[in-house]
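Worked example

This section walks through a single chain of length 64. The input is the sequence exactly as stored; nothing has been trimmed or padded.
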Amino acid sequence: MASTPAAPPPPETVEVDQINVSCEGNGGPLGHPRVFLSLEKGEVECPYCDRRFVLRAGAPAGGH
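Given that input, the structure is written out below as tokens.
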């Protein structure tokens, strides 16, 4: 009987203190082009690697 392949790990969630962030997919050979993301709604997912960025509780919602 063949074993079922393991499910991939869930995307990483990163808590940040700024509303504007960038993502490169952790760099290295598996990275991706740098993209700039805005957490205007409190969270955002990277369109390349699905890493999820969430605004840390108490962080200012506005800013640069």
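What to look for: The radius of gyration is 15 Å.
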